[in-house]
Amino acid sequence: MPNSDELYEAMKNDLELFAVTICKNVVTDLPVPQFHSEIYKTIAKENRVVLSAPRGFSKSTLVSKIFPLWLSLYKKSTDICIISASESLAIEHLRYIKQEIESNMFLNHLFGDMRSEKWTEDMCILANGVTIRAKGAGAQIRGFRPSCLILDDVETDESVESEEQRRKLKDWLFRACLNTLLPEGKFLLIGTQLHPLCVLSELLNDESKDWVKKTYQAYVDGIQEEGHELWPGARSHKWLQGRKGEIGTSAFSAEYMNNPMLNENSPIQEKHIHYWDVLPEQLSVSIALDPAYSDDEKADYKVAVAVGIDGNNKRYLLDYVRTHNPSGEYIDQAINLYLKYKYKVMAFGVPNSGTEKEFYNKVVEKSMSRGIGLPIVPLSNTFVDSTGKAIRRKSKRITASLQPLFEQANYLIHKSHVEAREELLSIGFSRWDDLTDAMCYCEQILQPVYKGSWADEVDYDDDREPPTANYGFD
């Protein structure tokens, strides 16, 4: 056990050690999760940080309570300003800092009495001369030169919905806040992404700024399965799914997955999602592929969907492949999907425009090498609507092809299709749209016909040459 002098020196350059030693009343007895350790290291080292973390995962405790306390006691910053959506919220953070200085006996043993005569609700000056202020978003900042600005949850559910409010906040951040900050000062913006167009989301995706940007989701890599929890000790899979059931997918996506949806403006809304339990016996099936050209885990998913259509032109999402596997494995998975519905499959759609021709040829080669005759249909990245208008932009063609079907309850998915459901509810606003794009591709080949009872008796020759005609589709 180090003596007081050794501990004082050790904590001086170790924010995490300081947190677990001095701030025991706000740090849980659980082992420090990896993402907390990463946050401690990042905010201590870097001068420009934009950080997004789930609600209730202690981001404010780490960044707006423990961090400024550490900075001030060791005089690493001389003028610290904590800013929240309202001044009252910022004052809560400052109140914690003052209470620690006033009543934490071990802190007083190490650092002495750090109180001064200037000790008000929204500002305090420590005995070592460090000033800490609490402000609300949009407040007057000019007139003093902070060496550290901490902006914590400065956006609200109301402010993010207004384009004008978002613009005003962004202008205030860059004109008022950054312009008053000392050149070598720290600027930390933390929060939860409440809206796809919120300032936090915009800065996290702004490649022009060479800032440190971190996004954490309640589930690592967005995989909502047991074993993928970001903080399993405090937020288990059972707890997270229970919370999701309470607040709904849309709120959970924003508050816990940092993947906000635009409910009111989303082309397909919750009320438009319908589910199938038992499939009709007579279905025609089409399969469509939507490849990605990188195997990186952060790249788009490689997708293949199987969609059935009945005699009433009602669609059923039957099954899908969604993977980051290498291209060869992905093609095998897509072919296996075909084999699953083999005698009902009318077409196997593969993109064949521009750079996608090489992928198309690989699918043909793979099917031949496996001795499987796929009913291949070339697909283009254009959707032609009922008026004959050609639509190329991805989000618009997805909307044009799928929205009418879902609104009329003519497209059903299964309750296990979690990823598909979430993509459908966030068309045009989510990072992921690969499943919905593949479903859009499928609309190029689905026809208002279905196979009758004779379908199960038909046996295709798997040794046949894969057809390359376009079956009348452009």
Helical content stands at: 25-40%
C-alpha geometry? elongated
**CATH domain topology of the largest domain:** Rossmann fold
Unreliable parts: 448-474
Radius of gyration: 28 Å
CATH class of the largest domain: Alpha Beta
Q: Let me know the CATH homologous superfamily of the largest domain.
A: P-loop containing nucleotide triphosphate hydrolases
- Number of helices, counting only DSSP H or I runs of 4 residues or more: 15
What CATH architecture of the largest domain would you give? 3-Layer(aba) Sandwich
How many beta-strand segments? 16
Quick one: biggest sheet?
7 strands, mixed
Structural class: alpha/beta
Question: What's the structural domain tally?
Answer: 2
Looking at how many chains there are and whether they match, the oligomeric state comes to single chain
How far is it from the N-terminal to the C-terminal residue, by CA?
75 Å
Strand sequence of the main sheet, in spatial order?
3-4-2-5-6-1-7
Proportion in β-strands? 15-25%
Report mean pLDDT, rounded to a whole number. Answer: 87
Describe this structure in words.
This protein folds into 2 domains: 4-216, Rossmann fold, CATH 3.40.50; 270-457, Nucleotidyltransferase, domain 5 (2-Layer Sandwich). It contains 15 helices and 16 strands. The chain has helices at 4-12, 15-22, 34-45, 59-73, 87-103, 105-111, 163-180, 199-204, 237-247, 249-255, 327-340, 357-369, 394-407, 418-424, 434-442; strands spanning 48-52, 79-84, 123-125, 131-136, 148-152, 186-191, 212-215, 274-275, 284-290, 302-309, 315-323, 345-351, 376-379, 383-384, 390-391, 411-413. The strands form 3 sheets. The protein has a 7-stranded mixed β-sheet with strand order 3-4-2-5-6-1-7. The protein has a 7-stranded mixed β-sheet with strand order 8-16-11-10-9-12-13. α3 crosses α4, α4 packs across α5 and α9 packs across α10 (249-255). It is elongated and about 80 Å long. Mean pLDDT is 87; it is low at 448-474.
